[in-house]
Write a structure and sequence with these properties.
The protein has a single domain, classed as Gcn5-related N-acetyltransferase (GNAT) (Aminopeptidase). By secondary structure, it is of the alpha+beta class. The chain is 28% helix and 34% strand. It has a seven-stranded mixed β-sheet, sandwiched between helices. It comes from candidate division KSB3 bacterium. This is GNAT family N-acetyltransferase. Keywords: Acyltransferase, Transferase. Pfam families: Acetyltransf_1.
Length: 170
């Protein structure tokens, strides 16, 4: 498996992987599948030199992806903070792909001048919470019952990590 910067030709695969999470429910706050056309601005907002969009690929097949995105875009005091997101094709779960993607993204942070990384996830996504914890992320915030999935209310949690920070800073 290799991890590389996403190419425009990957977009349909990225959308298909994301829509698996949408359709499964409570993996993302989106409740309706997205289209390739709708995701083009999202794709364009990422660049390898500041906010990369990474794909994990094996034998020409995209298995998953991770992004670093601006946190509170346009607010200069937040310019050294990024949000990390990651999704893996359901057929490729439990193969260490998300771990490799997260590690790769975190390894890029010093060169990108990113000092703090957040993951903002639904509090029911226990697999993702466990993954983040293995990388030293800690829960920094919880917004209870802010997402409604046809009457099922779940919270949003903020998991944060200081890049190169001491144990106390995390």
């Amino acid at each position: 498996m290799q991890i590389r910067t996403a190419a425009r030709s990957d977009l349909s695969s990225l959308v298909a992987i994301y829509n698996q999470a949408v359709e499964a429910g409570q993996r993302t706050a989106d409740i309706d599948p997205v289209t390739v056309e709708e995701r083009q601005p999202w794709f364009e907002a990422h660049s390898p030199d500041k906010y990369p969009l990474l794909v994990a690929e094996r034998d020409g097949k995209v298995l998953g992806y991770a992004t670093l995105s601006p946190y509170r875009p346009g607010r200069r005091a937040m310019r050294f903070t990024a949000e990390i997101s990651y999704y893996v094709d359901f057929a490729s779960h439990r193969q260490g792909i998300a771990s490799r993607l997260v590690q790769h993204a975190l390894d890029l942070c010093p060169a990108l001048r990113i000092k703090t990384v957040f993951a903002i996830i639904l509090d029911t996504n226990t697999a993702s919470i466990r993954l983040l914890q293995t990388f030293g992320f800690r829960q920094w915030g919880h917004l209870p019952r802010v997402a409604d999935f046809d009457g099922v209310e779940v919270g949003h949690v903020y998991y944060g990590l200081r890049i190169g920070g001491t144990e106390e800073e995390r």
